[in-house]
Amino acid sequence: MILENVPELFGMGYALISLFVLFFLFKSQRFNKTFRYLFLIVTTGFGFLIFAPVLPIKFQNLLAMKPKGINPQYLILILGVLVFLGLTFYFGRIFCGYLCPFGTIQELAYLPPTRKFEISSKKVLIGLHLVVFLVFLGSGIFFSKPLLGYFGLQEFFYLRVSSIFFYVFLGVSLISIFVYRPFCQGICPYGALLSLTSAKSLYKLRRNDKCIDCGLCEEACPTNEAGRGDAKMDCYHCGRCVDVCPEDAIEYSRSN
After folding, report:
1. Is 228 in a helix, a strand, or coil?
2. What percentage of the chain's residues is helix, strand, coil (to nearest 5)?
3. 67 pLDDT tier (thresholds 50, 70, 90)
């Protein structure tokens, strides 16, 4: 982190305001590649500059804290985690897609045109993520162990190259060149919660009446969530399905 004197609430404010801006852009069909790359780059920059907004870390700290009495910091953590959890139920996983530095740096890493590897079985991936989530939950509640610390998230964004943990998340970032968002899809404990709310979110990328069932969106989707009946649990609104659709048949809309 370069700007150490910037309050953490600045990052949360950025995430909250940007979430509503992104919602407006998606809903009005004004979201395009320029906005996509802008938010990916800016959010990643905030990760290196002020290490925010990093709700996965906040969620892990919340599990590990054992406050005595009324603790303002604890209450702020609870409020932040619950607010974005609730907003995901309404907007979908826009936060994960464009406002979490851990996710945006993986998204940027995946952009180079290299050979990609996908996990075809969503059930296996969901099961793995559930097991990992329960491990994080247990270690935090019963042992006050913030396991995310072993993934080097803070060391990476603080550029602490002398720490061995720096190279753990560096490795995750390099894997992201070939595998789409491995940390988000299989490790992030807060992401596991957001995937559940996203499955029931009111707004999603949906097919409209123009759809001709060409299957191009399903081929383009890196998380296998573009199918007509998919719940969009791991839809990060990356826009690849929209980009390849020949009929403009995919739009961000509310369920009927």
Report:
1. coil
2. 60, 5, 35
3. low
CA angle, 195 as apex, 191 and 198 as ends, to 5°? 130
Integer Cα distance of 143 and 42 in angstroms: 36
Query: Span 159-186, mean pLDDT?
Result: 96
> Is 125 in contact with 185 (CB distance < 8 Å)?
yes
pTM over 0.90: yes
Burial class (CB in 10 A: 0-12, 13-18, 19+), 10: middle
Report DSSP state, residue 150: G
Q: Comparing C-alpha atoms, which of 7, 6, 5, 25 is closest to residue 17? A: 25
Distance CA(113)–CA(147), nearest Å, equals 33
Domain boundaries, the chain: 8-202
Two tokens, residue 113: 């045109």
Angle at 155 between CA 175 and CA 126, to 5 degrees: 45
Residue 131 pLDDT: 94
Among candidates 9, 154, 144, 7, which has minimal Cα distance to 76? 9
Q: Which residues are 192's β-sheet partners?
A: none
Q: Where are the beta strands (DSSP E) in the chain?
A: 203-207, 250-254
SS3 category, 109: helix
